Amino acid sequence: MRAFGEAILAGASGEELAALPLPESYRAAHVLASDVEMFVGIDSAEKDPRKSLHVSEVALPELAPDEAYVAVMASAINFNTVWSAIFEPLPTFGFLQRLGREGVWGSRHAQDHHVLGSDASGVVVRVGSMVRKWKPGDKVVIHCNYVDDQDPSSHDDSMLASNQRIWGFETNFGGLADLTVVKANQLMPKAAHLSWEEAAVNALCNTTAYRMLLSRNGAVMQQGDRVLIWGASGGLGSYAVQHVLNGGGVPVGIVSSPEKAQLLRQLGVEAVIDRKAAGYRFWLDEHTQDELEWRRLGKDVRALVGDDPEIVFEHPGRQTMGASVFVCKRGGTVVTCAATSGYMVEYDNRHLWMRLKTIKGSHFANYREAWDANQLICEGKVVPTLSVVYPLVEVGEAALRVHHNTHEGKIGVLCLAPHEGLGIDDPELRERVGEERITLFRRLGG
Ligand code: NAP
Fold this sequence. Notes:
The chain is of the alpha/beta class. It contains 19 helices and 20 strands. Helix 8 (203-213) packs across helix 9 and helix 12 packs across helix 13. Bound molecules: NADP nicotinamide-adenine-dinucleotide phosphate (NAP).
């Protein structure tokens, strides 16, 4: 794939890229089926992705008619990389086996290695015979919603499709590699004012936050809504904050250090709570929550923004869900897409029904939502929250940082791009958006 990387950096045309021979194998970050027992009996926090994530050559799969090969310039760590690498809550090979039973093209995915990665920026180098809108040479980013468009259940909101999957998590051939195999309906234009690594980190988290907050499938935020955002300087939160600010809402960002609080303020968030400094103890022990502590958080939020939040942006799960349901305003919505601290959540149902609150489940986004969220990136209305960049060979180290919550925003991974700062095609737009804004997390985070 090195030849593709060099050709792309030298400005090769689509025809020239299409004429380059494809390799039989490519470099990819993957986990192995033979490793799935390696962490049995070890505490979750001690499970080390550096031991389970391998970077080496894997065989190039054949291309299906509705797919494209993309030469990956950069990718990103998502929390699903961590889940896959620590084999929690389940090893991902079961997903691949299931997909493997879905016909001849599905069977390619059922391997004893799983190439991870659900974000990427790069260049299309081949398209299958059914691909109409994309061609070699197109600079793209990739969204991770993988659906079978011949399944009728995928034709309303495709996230409701019965066999909807997340690329690079529930499918093979993900983005943490020098090449990836994606369906054509995962492709979106790359923002011309961003470098490869800045462009690579947005799609998954930006789009998920977009659907959760703005889409009619999410909480449908209105101007003036107060939105409590857990992990507001993290992957999801750092995009959620921007959507709330852009939409005329009032974000209340919760973080866990003065540095993260400072970063949020620089992003334009006035109401910030440092949960560590506040010392909330929502759980007295493993079985008992403390309503007084929920109440204390509610008072702190009111003190900052004058009322209870109409929307709570929830993803930590077990540690925070009780508090989230409690502090949400009467008639408000807790929108949740995850449960990092545990999925068996507990809340006091009286506060939900008596105050007519809604808990709304959300999961990534359909193509339309991903496209609209990507437009905001392309127009510079939402900026990347890239804070640090690792080479692909250090993907384990990068995943460990997300696992241990020692990062801000997003972690980028260089694949074919030899170093940072390449791939910017529209310096004028970059200047208009503002170098300071675009690189805020890179300068202050990390
Ligand atoms: P991230 O970059 O690690 O950010 C999460 C943030 O949550 C951290 O920065 C941390 O902020 C906060 N946090 C962690 N544990 C917490 C706790 N016990 N209590 C309160 N806050 C806590 O991860 P992410 O990319 O935002 O993803 C977050 C979760 O969403 C993961 O479980 C991921 O798998 C999931 N996710 C789901 C979807 C979907 O489509 N369903 C999409 C993206 C992500 P502070 O320490 O600063 O408070």
